[in-house]
Each structure stands twice: as structure tokens, then as C-alpha cells.
Amino acid sequence: MVNSFMAGHDSGTHHQFTGIAKYFNSYTIIGRRNYVLATYAGITTLFLFFKLKPKKKAVTAS
Q: So where does this one cross the membrane (predicted)?
């Protein structure tokens, strides 16, 4: 029987991550998913910030 490591669902089970690397890494499917979700959340936050930001009122000279 030959033990080989291939990419797939459990390809990252032999890595022992600690800290933030446990949730954001490029070795596991869940780590990659978390990067994508964080990116989408950041883009959405910026969009909503600029969309909902109050408009400046025009200043009229009197």
C-alpha cells in the first residue's frame, strides 16, 4: 500500500495551525473559503459605506 498526499478534501489535515493561521490558510479548503468570505465582506463593507454616507450639503453664499 502506497501512502500519497494528494490535493482534495482532507489534504490539509496533517498541518497543525495555531492562532489566526488556523482560520486563514491556503492549505485547507476551509482556510481558503475564509479568505474568500473576508474579501467579499470587505468589498461589501466599502460599498455600503460609500453608498450610505450622507451627502454634503451645498453651501450658498448670502
A: 35-52
Residue pair 26/36 in contact (Cβ under 8 Å)? The answer is no
Res 39 pLDDT > 90: yes
Domain residues of the chain, as ranges?
19-52
Residue the block writes with cell 460609500: 50
Report the chain's C-alpha Rg in angstroms: 22
Distant-in-sequence, close-in-space partners of 30: CB < 8 Å, separation ≥ 6: 23
C-alpha cell at 60: 450658498
Kindly provide the b/e burial profile for residues 20-40, where b requires at least 16 CB atoms within 10 angstroms of the residue's own CB. Answer: eeeebbeebeebeebeeeeee
Arithmetic mean of pLDDT over the chain: 84
